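FW: tagging you since you asked about this chain on Friday. Here's the raw sequence from the shared folder, copied in full. Didn't touch anything.
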Amino acid sequence: MQSVEVEGGEHARRSSLLNSDEPLIYYYDDVRTVYDIFQRGVQVSNNGPCLGVRKPNQPYEWISYKEVSDRAECLGSALLHRGFKPSHVQYIGIFSQNRPEWVIIEQGCYAFSMVVVPLYDTLGTEAITYIVNKADLSLVFCDKPDKAKLLLTSVEKGETPILNTIVIMESFGMDLVERGKKCGVEVFSMKEIEELGRAHRQKPMPPKPEDLAVICFTSGTTGNPKGAMITHQNIVSNASAFVKTTEKTFMPSSDDVLISFLPLAHMFERVVECVVLCHGARIGFFQGDIRLLMDDLKTLQPTVFPVVPRLLNRMFDKVNTSLKRWMLDFASKRKEAELRSGIVRNNSFWDKVIFRKIQASLGGKVRLMVTGAAPVSASVLTFLRTALGCQFYEGYGQTECTAGCSLSLPGDWTAGHVGAPMPCSIIKLVDVQEMNYLAAKGEGEVCVKGPNVFCGYLKDPEKTAEALDKDGWLHTGDIGKWLPNGTLKIIDRKKHIFKLAQGEYIAPEKIENVYLRCEALAQVFVHGESLQVSILQVTLKTNARGDCRRVFLSSLPQTSGLKS
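HL: got it, structure written out here
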């Protein structure tokens, strides 16, 4: 059995990797915060390469662990010199794609107990304005001038009066500085901030495990984004649980390399990066263009590759059309038999003859992959496990439990489930009687408890009470089912929403109601599957005359901001 029932009568289950019902909080005695994670990396790497970037058609260039640590402390010192407090209620915004500066800023904040608040493009301008105000962000780091301009526009309109400082990573013109002065915003370069801190160096004031580390705003489906408050202990326990799960088959080392392309604004990528940084490994960042990812992979040759189902589907589709179908099927079935026996390898006859090209497309050295954020088709996952010949884990979770609460175990390479509870989590299923899901039958809403569960939403006690009950259980809204081997299978959703393959939540009723405001339509049905893109089915009014398409499109601009 991969999970064990805990005492207490609620039929909750824990990882079979634990010796007691107490969930795992930390793996290493000296690593209790995300600051500790990086400091351990500095030591075990022996000041090896840490963060790498590349220009088009060039090799990766690296900065060392100590250089990252030094720049981070300078940056944090500059913030203190400018009046920011070394406190877990001091929030700092980061509006940037993945790049070394992201990690440097994050570690600079943690060196002085500050809290990171990520912003990202897909939130939209209104949501970004909302977050700046909700989190009282007086300072935001931006990677590009365009993002600084977006923030300045909101200040000029009087929408974000709290914002008074912007730091830009890339080069920019003096016109931006002058524009900032006119609306009371100081604009600095990243270099200026680091030099200021170097001239006014402060001794680090590290956080405590229970202190906030990040406020991760989730887009959701309706209303304003919610700011999930994640502590250092949340992150450390989640990363520790991953290490515990894979310790006998995969223990990261300074020889490992991670490709960073999934958004650092999301906790999945952050936890994976914590795992590799804690062990002194390297992180190579993609060039910022997903179309160049395959070239980055070939150049970097990563050993650790976290992915989302959307990318897996693309890989599967590409492979499907590049070789004869029957040959792929035959080779995959041969290796699938090995997988069922727990054998994972990339040196079989079928690897050399059929799958070597696929493995080489990822750099040829991948030894661990993990997928999460959305469901993945069992057939796609099984095929790629056979084709790539590496340990390939599937996890399940959400921001509110930091990242993951369940993960497949080494040796069980079957698909169609999301693994067993991670060592940091206890999972129970509760009745959803209106949907006829009963915990007594091993079905119900997935609820999670443990040191990885967040402490609530920022300044939103009502939403917090909806997610966390009085006993500390996180109600996920997903419907799960226990399988005979103790693994969890997600079978439904409590609310009428679903998640697309790219991880985006969709509320079909909301979309249907918007389209129904179009006079040309009588009925609308929006259908989506978590393994596919959404589909819109439209039925026109019987009395709609003339060019139906013209009537439909001309009506759309009148509906809640939808554009033709």
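FW: The chain has 17 helices and 26 strands.
HL: agreed, and Residues 328 and 354 are 7 Å apart (CA to CA).
FW: great, closing this out.
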